[in-house]
Amino acid sequence: MDEKHLTPRAEDYNQWYLDVIAAADMAQHSPVKGCMVIKPYGYAIWERIQAILDARFKETGVENAYFPLFIPQSLLTREADHVEGFAPEVAVVTHAGGEKLEEPLVIRPTSETIMYETFKDWIHSYRDLPLLINQWANVVRWEKRTRLFLRTTEFLWQEGHTVHATHEQADERARMMLEVYRDFAENVMAIPVIPGQKSESEKFAGAHRTYCLEAMMQDGRALQFATSHDLGQNFAKAFDVKFTDEQNVEQFAWQTSWGLSTRTIGGLIMAHSDDKGLIVPPRLAPIQVVVVPLWFKDEQRAEVLSQAEKIAALLKTVGVRVKIDQKEGRPGEKFYEWEKKGVPLRLELGPKDLLNEKVVVARRDSGEKEDVSFSNLAIEIPKRLEEIQGALFARAKAYRDQRSVRVDTWDAFKMAIENGKFVLAHWCGEAEVEAKIKEETNATIRCLPFEAPEEKGVCVLSGKPSQRRVVFARAY
């Protein structure tokens, strides 16, 4: 990356993505291959994600807990589909304390097994249900090809796990948590998503059903934003999670799991950012407004800084997250730094502005500038932040809609996928056909959209009958 310029998206999208992360000072590669160091600004964004989602989970009755990083290998093998699905990604500890372990320990790729072995001791009666647990943790999946935030060997996430007396209650919870994620994606991160169900081939290993949210990035590829799984009784039977019902009859429980990870930060970058750097939606931004005081003579410094502090204090009273940039440096350098970090609004304050009792307000999303008087800041700044929030969502949605197409022939399908589109096409429901489409185009079924109406047609590849269209795309 050039000191002053990022690689343009049109020239090399993958390099642009890495340039944005470096320019915004969000993360870097670690000495451990495939792992990343999340730097303070990148972690501040993750902390915002945590804080907002944690509060929303708790509003639905969920409580936080913590379970071990290490899982006895025998637990992982209890559920056959689960172990088969994760086997290629599992990291195993065989030696510790200078000795070979009697039983190898798996470094958690996900926590169903260790949690459910514990849940069986917590649950005895229907009175113990529902059990609603979440944990914020790190997980390890030995990825062969990694990319900062999107796919790393170790990453951060939250994983919710719930236990219920009936399948209806479990499925309702799985859908409820998907809706929590959808609202967060669209109304906080300003990323439009398509809610739906995964195909049998794409569902979570060991799940009865997997629900998901799919988002389009600026290169036309899909990003799985979050997932929520109706686990049925598969894990309950494997781990003996039972309860005695109201008729004093012992029953296997019904379970769900649901999660969101630091890959959403990769989604944030690729959904909104531009060739100048990162763009962060105001509701998510750790810093919503940066005040940049400008002075040209030493005697001007104290007065300008004093007014900057008054402005910051005023904005804090109306709930704005604000920072004053007091570093030495040329105005252009300061502006460029905050532009790269994607702070939604920049307030420029110099000696002439003091005389006129106003600041220059610059929008990160559009680059527009305007003068706002000191007396109107408490009203106008929150208003501008909401305008930016809405504009970012509208822009991302318009882009996705523009690049989403309905096709009915195999040639049109291949061309649309090659051109980076979301393709709504008929599929006969056969796994063999789904696999053939993936093999020939590198596109997968992203989801069976909840909102897709029943529409009789024929499969785009096999020509067999189909009841509705599904979403195909290449994905991260």
Can you give a write-up of this model?
This protein has three domains: about 15-270, 2-Layer Sandwich (BirA Bifunctional Protein, domain 2), CATH 3.30.930; about 290-385, Anticodon-binding domain (Rossmann fold); about 405-475, 2-Layer Sandwich (Translation Initiation Factor IF3), CATH 3.30.110.30. The chain contains 14 helices and 25 strands. The protein has helices at about 15-25, 40-60, 75, 80-85, 110-120, 165-185, 235-240, 265-270, 300-315, 330-340, 350-355, 375-400, 410-420, 430-440; strands at about 25-30, 35-40, 65, 70, 90-95, 100-105, 130-140, 155-165, 195, 210-215, 220-230, 240-245, 250, 255-260, 290-295, 320-325, 345-350, 360-365, 370-375, 405, 420-425, 445-450, 455-460, 465, 470-475. Helix 2 packs across helix 6. It is globular and about 80 Å long. About 40% of the residues are buried.
